């Protein structure tokens, strides 16, 4: 198979400035609703890119759990690689790959840790098995075998068999406050439509079209 021959045309839609909302969060929510309505797999999945102290980028997919005018929210183990890297460098990039709709959204921003009250509210809303998994997994740390991980899960499950599962002290969340957001719509002949929202000093957003 020659992968350099794999290509397709992008003809589903066009994007022009008069079709964009002046507020990028409103525009994002409109596109997210389209992704959900299209029944895409994991429409809230986003790639989170961080950078370590050596300048090495790393990426992983996580689920968006909230979005509002303050930013984009996700939750994680605070001992995970992404959390450790964000502690050293809070600059982050999010990418929403809605390929079946021939759309992408890229968010450039800064991460801040969420208050304990927000973390607790979300954690207690999770299915019990997910709460137990948070306790059982030392995220991003080496583990000898899957059997060892499942054994730890079984021990945690037995420990919290009765009653609520408490919020781990190492569990937290981040809010990404953007300074720029790009909306990308695939176009015919690779002439894609790209628009970047830039946050201004007065809190408004400037929109400009980018070459594909």
From TrEMBL:
Gene Ontology molecular function terms on file: FMN binding; pyridoxamine phosphate oxidase activity
Domain spans labelled Pyridoxamine 5'-phosphate oxidase N-terminal: 32-158
Top-rank taxon, per record: Bacteria
Record-annotated Pyridoxine 5'-phosphate oxidase dimerisation C-terminal domain positions: 171-212
Binding site residues for substrate: 7-10, 65, 122, 126, 130, 190-192
Organism: Rheinheimera riviphila
Gene Ontology biological process: pyridoxine biosynthetic process
Protein name as annotated: Pyridoxine/pyridoxamine 5'-phosphate oxidase
């Amino acid at each position: 198979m020659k992968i350099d021959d794999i290509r397709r045309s992008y003809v589903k839609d066009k994007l022009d400035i008069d079709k964009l909302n002046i507020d990028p969060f409103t525009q994002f929510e409109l596109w997210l609703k389209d992704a959900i309505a299209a029944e895409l797999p994991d429409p809230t999945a986003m790639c989170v890119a961080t950078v370590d102290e050596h300048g090495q980028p790393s990426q992983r997919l996580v689920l968006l759990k909230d979005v509002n005018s303050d930013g984009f929210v996700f939750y994680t183990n605070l001992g995970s690689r992404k959390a450790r890297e964000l502690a050293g460098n809070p600059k982050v990039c999010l990418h929403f790959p809605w390929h079946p709709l021939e759309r992408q959204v890229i968010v450039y921003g800064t991460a801040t840790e969420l208050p304990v009250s927000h973390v607790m509210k979300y954690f207690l809303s999770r299915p019990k098995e997910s709460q137990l998994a948070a306790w059982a997994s030392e995220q991003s740390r080496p583990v000898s075998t899957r059997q060892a991980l499942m054994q730890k899960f079984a021990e945690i499950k037995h420990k919290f068999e009765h009653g609520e599962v408490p919020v781990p002290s190492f569990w937290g969340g981040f809010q990404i406050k953007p300074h720029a957001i790009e909306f990308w719509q695939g176009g015919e002949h690779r002439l894609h439509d790209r628009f970047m929202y830039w946050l201004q000093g007065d809190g408004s957003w400037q929109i400009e079209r980018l070459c594909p």
